[in-house]
Write a structure and sequence with these properties.
mainly beta, 11% helix
Length: 164
């Protein structure tokens, strides 16, 4: 599990993604084996390599004076393939990109389009009004907008530290 922290305007945002730590090593090994197979003339493609992989959609976190926004790039999916939820201060985005029935039975020589599921979890700041969260989807992009609570728009109170 990979955890990244992004700091924007001194507000830490934790992004957590479930990712197989050996996936990149497996891809390199597959590439080496495919090169070996091509060198000796063996067929090198197996369709199962491209099904049920863990996808890692690109995500941007944007904050302005009024809202906190997550912008997620998920091409090849429809609104019915995406689930968005907020629970205990965690925004979770899940999706599943399945192989089309049109793709079944084709004899691919090369295939780079990935299929599978993903789940991204983002720890949200306490200053958000999660009850008013909204999500929209268009042309492979998901936007989740969560307004800030009215009291969070006020300037922070500075506290004087006293010497004891």
């Amino acid at each position: 599990m990979k955890i990244e922290t992004v700091k924007e305007k001194n507000v830490p945002v934790s992004i957590q993604s479930r990712r197989n730590p050996f996936l990149s090593m497996q891809k390199e090994l597959d590439n080496a084996m495919n090169y070996f197979d091509r060198w000796f003339g063996f067929p090198s493609f197996s369709r199962r390599e491209f099904e049920n992989l863990t996808l890692m959609p690109a995500i941007d976190i944007v904050e302005d004076d009024e809202n906190f926004k997550a912008e997620v790039e998920i091409p090849g999916m429809g609104v019915e393939d995406i689930k968005v939820s907020i629970e205990d201060g965690i925004l979770t985005i899940k999706g599943e990109k399945t192989v089309s029935r049109k793709d079944k039975g084709k004899s691919y020589k090369m295939r780079e389009i990935s299929y599978g599921g993903y789940e991204r979890s983002i720890a949200l700041p306490n200053s958000l009004d999660t009850e008013k969260a909204k999500a929209s989807f268009k042309k492979g992009m998901l936007w989740v907008t969560i307004p800030k609570k009215l009291e969070s728009a006020k300037k922070p109170k500075e506290i004087t530290v006293e010497k004891v």
